[in-house]
Design a protein that fits this description.
Blueprint (H helix, E strand, L loop, with lengths): L9 E11 L5 E10 L8 E5 L9 E6 L2 H5 L7 H15 L1 E6 L8 H11 L5 H7 L10 H9 L4 E5 L3 H9 L3 E6 L10 H9 L9
The structure holds guanosine-5'-triphosphate and zinc ion.
Length: 207
């Protein structure tokens, strides 16, 4: 990928959030908002733990999933991935970027429309395509802007999705290494994880 120049974004507000997660984990997050993000969405960065300046911070780009993150739906693995990310980034020191990209960018209502098609046998990507959307239309330019605004130029990236690393690199953020997330399997997400591995290019050992 070639380097794409981005408009400069700036930190707007930083404020502490004392977190008590549903898995019992407690931590202090420095919530950070921005001005000038390219897509105009209200993306949020959480600064967690203490980054050791000798090594790049651990960073996760987490795409919003209301059903999984908030309600604990087991159709996907987003909820446990979010818990894992908060714990691991607190330990290592780094940033969780909570990106407002519900449903891989198609929005909540369209994601639930796609779920109804998945209940008739389509996989997660074909359901998007049948509704006239891209299989995965997410871009991570705003995430790169957020990292630049935070003064971060090199990261260890917590993900199984190579596209996130490639897009950050294309926007001038060095990815020293991709750190895999655990594979969170449930009875309800086994086909979803298999589709991510087989068709989405995700590096995971699907069940
Ligand atoms: N359109 C659609 N979006 C989904 C579905 N299931 C989960 N999502 C969304 O997918 C996003 C999470 O992306 P994933 O593909 O699970 O994982 P990823 O973030 O690309 O990869 P990792 O960094 O390895 O976790 C969230 O925005 C979810 O709302 C689905 O069946 N259809
Ligand atoms: Zn989800």
């Amino acid at each position: 990928m070639t380097l794409t120049p981005l408009p400069v974004a700036t930190v707007r507000t930083q404020v502490d959030l004392p977190l008590r997660r549903s898995d019992g984990h407690r931590t202090l997050a420095r919530a950070t908002t921005f001005d000038g993000l390219v897509d105009g969405a209200e993306h949020l960065a959480l600064v967690l733990g203490r980054a050791d300046r000798a090594t790049p911070p651990l960073v996760r780009l987490h795409s919003e999933c209301l059903t999984g993150d908030l309600f604990g739906s087991q159709r996907c693995d987003c909820g446990p991935q979010l818990d894992e990310a908060v714990r691991r980034i607190t330990r290592a020191g780094g940033y969780l970027l909570y990106l407002r990209q519900e449903g891989r960018g198609i929005g909540l209502y369209a994601k639930l429309d796609a779920y109804t098609l998945q209940d008739t046998g389509l996989d997660t990507y074909d359901a998007n395509l049948a509704l006239g959307y891209a299989a995965d239309g997410r871009t991570y330019a705003a995430a790169a802007q957020m990292l630049h605004a935070l003064g971060v130029v090199e990261v260890d990236l917590l993900t199984n999705n190579p596209d996130k690393a490639a897009q950050l690199e294309a926007h001038g953020i060095r990815v020293r290494q991709r750190v895999p997330t655990a594979v969170h399997v449930s009875h309800a997400n086994v086909h979803y994880l298999a589709a991510k591995a087989r068709r989405g290019g995700h590096d995971l050992l699907y069940p």
